[in-house]
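Input (structure):
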């Protein structure tokens, strides 16, 4: 399977600008973690990062872009892990193992930033499917599924595996229904196991 590109890489920048960017994003992530994304202000993030508020505005423009940049910063690390990292999440493991590892890692990634991802996926409602990250996830799973099930519609199955990890459903399961993360991962294992099983491994219907 050819290597996929990590999407959303920041442009090349001076060392001092890159340092300030990391400080601002780290500060914003801490504010979001303690008070929620709605409580974030440019002034507060600037104070937490130890930079002038003008630096934050010049770097990110407005609060919404800053919040999405926090998502992007974490997202690039996740993408690098499944594209270039060690197995079973990264290359080197059997395709079925990589599918399972990817779904578990994506569940962890969703857990870490569920509220931010919900904001990003809901504005507009179809934003999840326009996002470069979703397209990369879909391509990654499609390539793995084609190796395991060359007879199947891998593109459709990739969407089916990603559907349970939409932020709105994930948060409903975690908060409204009280599902622990391990239960969600176990359900993903069951779903993925059924999808990657060869056709002759499907249970036979009992004669009536």
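Output (sequence):
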């Amino acid at each position: 399977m050819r290597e996929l590109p990590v999407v959303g890489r920041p442009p090349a920048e001076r060392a001092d600008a890159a340092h300030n960017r990391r400080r601002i994003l780290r500060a914003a992530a801490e504010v979001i973690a303690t008070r929620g994304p709605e409580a974030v202000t440019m002034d507060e993030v600037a104070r937490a990062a130890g930079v002038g508020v003008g630096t934050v505005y010049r770097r990110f423009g407005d609060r919404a872009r800053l919040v999405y940049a926090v998502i992007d910063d974490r997202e690039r690390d996740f993408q690098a892990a499944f594209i270039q990292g060690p197995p079973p999440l990264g290359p080197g493991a059997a395709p079925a193992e990589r599918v399972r590892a990817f779904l578990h890692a994506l569940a962890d990634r969703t857990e870490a930033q569920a509220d931010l991802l919900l904001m990003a996926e809901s504005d507009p409602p179809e934003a999840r499917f326009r996002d470069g990250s979703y397209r990369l996830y879909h391509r990654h799973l499609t390539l793995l599924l084609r190796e395991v099930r060359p007879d199947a519609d891998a593109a459709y199955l990739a969407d089916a595996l990603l559907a349970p990890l939409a932020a709105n459903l994930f948060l409903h399961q975690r908060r409204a229904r009280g599902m622990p993360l391990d239960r969600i991962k176990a359900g993903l294992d069951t779903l993925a196991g059924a999808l990657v099983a060869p056709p002759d491994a499907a249970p036979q219907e009992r004669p009536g």
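Notes: The chain has two domains: 14-61, 71-197. Residues 71-197 form a domain with the Tetracycline Repressor; domain 2 fold (CATH 1.10.357.10).
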